[in-house]
Amino acid sequence: MTRFAPILGWLQRRAENFIALMLAAMFLTFLLQILFRYILALPVTYTNWTVEFVSIAWLWGILFGYAFVVRDSDIIRLDIVYNGLPLGARRVLDAVTGLICAAILANTLPKCWDYVQFMRIERTPAMRIHYNYVFAIYIAFAVAVIVRSLLNVWGAIRGTGSRYVTPIHPEGHDYD
Amino acid sequence: ASATVELIYSDTVSETDIRSQLLQSEFGDCLGDEFTFQAYHGATLFAQGTELTAMQRGNLDMANLAIFDFYNQVPATSVLGLPFLFRDYEHMRAVYNSDVLDELWAQVEEATNVKFLSFPYIGARHLSYIGDHRYMTPADLAGVRLRMPGGEGWQFVGQAMGASPVPVAFTEVYTALQTHAIDAQDNGFPATRSMRFDELLTHIALTNHLIAANEFTMSMSKWNSMTAEQQERVQMCADQFEAALDQTTLEQEATLQAEFEAQGIDVYVPDNAAFQAHVTEVYMNSPYSADWPAGLVDAIGAVGQ
Amino acid sequence: MTDPFTLAMVLIAALALMGQSIGISMLVGSFVYLMLKGYDVSIAAETMMQGLFNGYTLLAVPLFILAADIMNIGSLADKLLRFAQALVGRFRGGLGHVNVVSSLIFSGMSGSAVADAVGMGKIVITMMTKDGKYTPSYAAAITAATAIVGPIIPPSIPMVLYALVSGQSVGFLFAAGILPGLLMALLMAVTNGVIAHRRGFPVDDGIPLRELPGATWQAIPALMLPVILLGGIYGGVMTPTEAAAVAAAYALVISVVLYRSVSARGLYQALLGSARSTASVGILIAGALAFNYVVTRENVPDSVAAMLSAMDLGPVGFLIAVNILFLVLGCVLEAGALLLIVVPILIPAAQALGIDLVHFGVVLVVNAMLGLITPPYGLLLFIVAAITKQPLIPIIKDLVPFIAILIVALMVITFCPDFVLYLPRLLGYQG
Ligand code: NA
Ligand code: NA
């Protein structure tokens, strides 16, 4: 795995660039909307794409961000029981729950793929984008969550997962 | 083997709305023992605008749709969203009862795999607002922030009326009016009352710009899975629902108008001919009219003349 | 409640307790329910994506997080902190009071407690924890607790939903929320004061009162922010969601132009950090959206509410049962869906028992909001955990006194209709 580390690190930074850019775009779009609508008083045909664009950015930001940018240490968990257990037990739990999640997301993926493709017949109201493109992010999200779950299972079996070695990511408190 | 036909229904109307009660009493109860009718209201099962695809995917059996829901799949349907297409309720009902629209419905059923059962009347939309004077013509609406539902078709209606349309979610219209984020809205009387907009409004212009009927529909796969007797039963109950909703809506509109006037709201008739001329011109110069079946607008206008 | 539903519930609880991502647990549980019922499993993905795509009011969340991050990297937060310290620093728990007051001021921002909590909430948390005077868990706890006042004091999206299903006046409901909201805020301020003394939170003696004018002068640009936002929203210039973008823009301009304290790198880090927090919170909302379908399809709220209506409890017993019902159902349904589904069933029973419906609405909304901060599943609880990067247990421990005092407030609100209806009656309500 280590020889892929530079490539993975590079991809990781590009994914981070992407969601930072998405939030910046959302922010600017809202400012444009205020400018168009209230300051220039343009008709809504110039501004109705703005709401739609930020809605897409919000959907993509969450699913893409969770799949590719959110670190294991950022994920919101109910760690009340988990944190009280010894390391060995935590490894067993991680292997079991990781396998369950990966299996179910993989098993349902074909049907969800079918739904995404089906939505080609509908288009968004303002920008007239086919919904299969808008919702395609689900496929990337599901595949990434499956892969990450399996990597965590592997890490739990070998005892090398980030949750056993360094409890908090070194950058965890950079920009709180 | 279970003999009953299960019908799952979803809409966006509140469970306590008179429309939901009539749906149960006139349609659901009418179906009898052979059916299990399960209705979900308030967009709690499927979000607004997603019912059509849910029916097409076999996840939903029935819905009460708006005409704009069909626009993506059959652009020609937008003709029925043309403001001032119908002169009044009687004209609208006469058109739906005639054969003028048969070709259009056949085309939609073919393209979407959805069965049209009936077209219950849900009320006329009027321009209502907070202001200090009457708006008689489209020119008076220049710069007025008129709330229209989200979606291009709806927004275009507001624009064609001469106003500056603003998309605001239905549940947020009250606060938007209160904070003056919008000046006007165009819901019919029943919704204006049930959402309490009348607490804030000062004027209602009786534009009657959209005489709205819903499309009471069933997925074609469900329809085809039923026996001829069952289909007949469903059709009969759907017609009964339409008749009951028509009558209730008309009664409500008459009572509510009197109540609004008594509350001190200025209810008046603007220059609707001027609005109609403006709207027609805007639509004819828009991409929408390119999709309309040739001569249909005139054929609709000719009904009952 | 059929077997597939029970199984899905058990699976979600098990996965979450065993340390899995809560959002993914709910999504997976929804998939399992659909599989066992033989339904189309893609409905879970569909409901999740359609819900996010149409969740316009929630768009304020990432923008408020960004605004707070920019205020933090620029020195706006520092100037605000110095001003607040000069003003209330000599009092124990002073910044805790600032937190309560900021919730009151910003209660009108979005009408949604979730958006309000990450709005000023994140800024105040930063101020409280910056010099180590308050533990991050205490800052998180008081922020979550005070944020629920937002939708009780008008404007309020949940109140509008209640008005829709109950046929009551929005205006009277809004008026009825004011005194209960103030009462809750007052009780939380008292709680904060008591905790500050008992735990001995340090006070500032470093900033003498004579420095107040200087600190105020320095903080004026930052203090203008609420003025601009509230003026913009109530003046009809912008919607609350747009206001979040304006807040971020304003913070950016002030930081760059006035304080010259923002680097391109700092701005990038703020964008990335905000986007990352948004994604970790967003997946919880996404999972809850998918599971909402399951709960609705199973008619769970229907059957529970019908059971409750049939129990023949009398007004006091009925109201207590409703309180409990909302706290429990709040674990599996978001507040809006809860009101839309349960209220129509409860209204006839409430009416039959002679309970005033405006009063009932306030009781229900307060309940629904309390559900946002009560464990095991409370969305606000998770959100403050995410923005403070703290584990849940210490936050929950620090929340206990606030939840206790809020339950006292809930009892007052529930059993003193005259208190709740005082303002509506002044405005002409005949109830
Ligand atoms: Na509020
Ligand atoms: Na607060």
TrEMBL record, chain A:
Major site of localization recorded for this protein: membrane
Subcellular location: Cell inner membrane
UniProt entry tagged with the keyword Cytoplasm: no
Subunit description: The complex comprises the extracytoplasmic solute receptor protein and the two transmembrane proteins.
Function: Part of the tripartite ATP-independent periplasmic (TRAP) transport system.
Record-annotated Tripartite ATP-independent periplasmic transporters DctQ component domain positions: 26-158
Pfam families: DctQ
Family of the protein in this entry: Belongs to the TRAP transporter small permease family.
Organism expressing this protein natively: Pararhodobacter zhoushanensis
InterPro entries: DctQ (IPR055348), TRAP_DctQ (IPR007387)
Membrane topology category: Multi-pass membrane protein
Keyword list, A-Z: Cell inner membrane, Cell membrane, Membrane, Transmembrane, Transmembrane helix, Transport
Sequence intervals crossing the membrane: 20-40, 46-70, 129-151
Protein name as catalogued: TRAP transporter small permease protein
Automatic annotation (TrEMBL), chain C:
Domain TRAP C4-dicarboxylate transport system permease DctM subunit: from-to ranges: 10-418
Family label: Belongs to the TRAP transporter large permease family.
UniProt main location, coarse: membrane
Annotated TM spans: 7-36, 56-77, 98-118, 138-165, 172-195, 215-237, 244-262, 274-295, 316-347, 359-387, 399-423
Top-level division of the source organism's lineage: Bacteria
Protein name: TRAP transporter large permease protein
NCBIfam families per UniProt: dctM
Record text on subunit structure and interactions: The complex comprises the extracytoplasmic solute receptor protein and the two transmembrane proteins.
Topology of this chain in the membrane: Multi-pass membrane protein
Compartmental location: Cell inner membrane
